[in-house]
Structure formats: C-alpha cells, structure tokens
Amino acid sequence: KDQERLMRHRYLDMISRKLEQLERTAEEQRLFLMDREERRQREHTRRKLTLRRKIEEEWKTKEMLLLTRMAEDVKREERIEEQQHRNREESDRKKQDLLEKKMAYHLQKMQDTGFNGEDIGKNTFKYRGQDGTHGE
What we know:
By secondary structure, the protein is mostly helical. The chain has 2 helices and no strands. The mean pLDDT is about 90.
C-alpha cells in the first residue's frame, strides 16, 4: 500500500510539474504574443506617422511652389502694368508735343498771313458752343 501511495504521489508530482511547465510555457507564449502584437502596433503607428509627415511635407512643398508661382505672377502683372503706364505716359507726351507743334505751326501761319489778335478772338467766340467749349 505504501508503495502504491508512493507511486501515486510520484505520478501526482510528475503531473504537477508537467502542468507547471505547461503553464509557464503558456504564459511565456502569451507574453511573447503580447510583445509581438505590441511591436506590430508600434510599427504600424510609426509607419502611419511617417506617411503623415511625408504627406504634410509634400503639401508644404506644393503650397510653397504655388505661393512662389503666385508671387511671380503678381510681379509679372506689376511689370506689365508699369510698362503700360510708361507707354501711356510716353504716348500722351508725344501727343502733347505734336499738339504743341501744330498749334505753334498754325499760330505762325496765322501771323504770317496777317491775322491779328482781334480777328482770332472774334473767330474763337463765333465757334464756341453753348457750354463755352470750342466747336469743330
């Protein structure tokens, strides 16, 4: 009987050790799987953050390029408007010079043909419109 009890006790010890070993192995596997899942999630998060940074940098680059183009367009339009303004001023100045030359020519011609100041004044009054401007 003692021997039978001893054998039962040994079997129970062996079974207990085997169960403890299986429990440790299961705990190690559970910890290993948790660690692996945690690393996978960190890697996934890192990839998402890296992708987000990359996209943000691309957008910033595109925004800067767009702003640069807009600034160039504004400068180009400003130069065009400035050139048009100079061209208008030059055209106006040339017209004014031509008008002054024509007036000087006609005044000289009138003086050469013998018009006197009174005749010029009378003719000017005669051709005025009702609003006081010269008629054509």
